[in-house]
Design brief:
The protein contains four helices and 13 strands. The protein starts with a strand and ends with a strand. 19% of the residues lie in helices and 22% in strands. The strands form four sheets. The protein has a seven-stranded mixed beta sheet, sandwiched between helices. The protein has a two-stranded antiparallel sheet with strand order 3-9. The chain is an alpha/beta fold and 283 residues long. Strand 12 and strand 13 form a beta hairpin.
């Protein structure tokens, strides 16, 4: 779902009233940072989806994903998240992946769509020289995305995705009280994802921990969602977006299934397909 900062605060207030999230710190104060985001949200979805419409912007024709684990807090984390997501992205794009290829129908202004000829995994950086701030702002997350792009040498590379993974006990851009599970955005030089520590999501939120019985299900479902949307709408607004403001993952935040890749089996969500006018789990 696409919302502006004030809209996200309003959405969080509705969720708080429904008991889905806790009271946001500094409620009513719009956080600093990019003015539009697209995210795996806790909002109630429309009963029927809408086909995506093209806004004239770029799509990622050859996506490459770079994982940035932010903060020295990761040094003591024992949940195996870096290895889990590395395995997932080494499988996505590789032989046997017919989930990523759902995005191939979403072409750019030249009629070219994303192609997958090998793993999309680009690298991992444990940025652990010092601790991640407990409450990093939206701007701080974007800046960490830029630091990651600089580290990997992919600044201004339109095919690059930087996934900023926050550590246990942190609250990037007000998470989990700000109405999203994660979101992707564009820093002006790179597509990046704000990926909070999903295991910290409160009971009753829609962040899908243990959705299919796996301890790390929320990481693959939510990050898979943002990965697909970053392919089809990398600048968060001028790619493929439905008239209702939602992207290819937003309309399909249910019906989770196990997707088998060459590197293992991962909990994933369907994606919206214009070809089928429905949510689908494979191309």
């Amino acid at each position: 779902m696409r919302v502006n900062r004030n809209g996200r605060i309003a959405a969080a207030a509705v969720l708080m009233a429904a008991g889905l999230v806790g009271a946001p710190a500094g409620a009513g104060q719009a956080s600093a940072g990019p003015q539009h985001v697209a995210g795996y949200t806790a909002n109630v979805k429309a009963a029927a989806g809408e086909n995506m419409q093209y806004g004239g912007g770029p799509v990622q024709l050859h996506p490459v994903v770079y994982l940035v684990f932010w903060g020295s807090q990761w040094n003591s984390d024992t949940n195996g998240i870096p290895a889990y997501l590395t395995s997932m992205f080494k499988g996505l794009g590789a032989t046997g992946d017919n989930w990523s290829t759902i995005t191939s129908q979403y072409t750019n202004s030249s009629g070219q769509g994303p192609t997958f000829n090998g793993a999309v995994f680009g690298g991992i950086w444990m940025d652990n020289a010092k601790a991640e701030p407990t409450n990093p702002s939206a701007n701080a997350v974007a800046n960490e995305g830029n630091r990651g792009a600089s580290h990997f040498g992919v600044t201004n590379n339109g095919n690059a995705q930087i996934v900023v993974l926050s550590a246990h006990g942190t609250h990037p851009d007000g998470w989990p009280s700000s109405g999203f599970c994660a979101y992707h955005d564009y820093s002006g030089s790179v597509s990046y994802t704000n990926m909070p520590y999903q295991l910290d999501a409160p009971a009753g939120s829609r962040c899908p921990n243990n959705a299919l019985g796996g301890h790390l299900d929320a990481f693959s479902i939510v990050e898979g969602h943002e990965y697909a949307e970053s392919i089809s709408d990398p600048q968060a607004g001028n790619g493929w977006v439905a008239p209702n403001g939602e992207e290819i993952g937003d309309q399909c935040e249910s019906g989770f299934q196990k997707v088998t890749l060459s590197t293992g089996t991962f909990a994933m969500q369907p994606l919206w397909s214009n070809k089928s006018s429905a949510c689908v789990i494979h191309n």
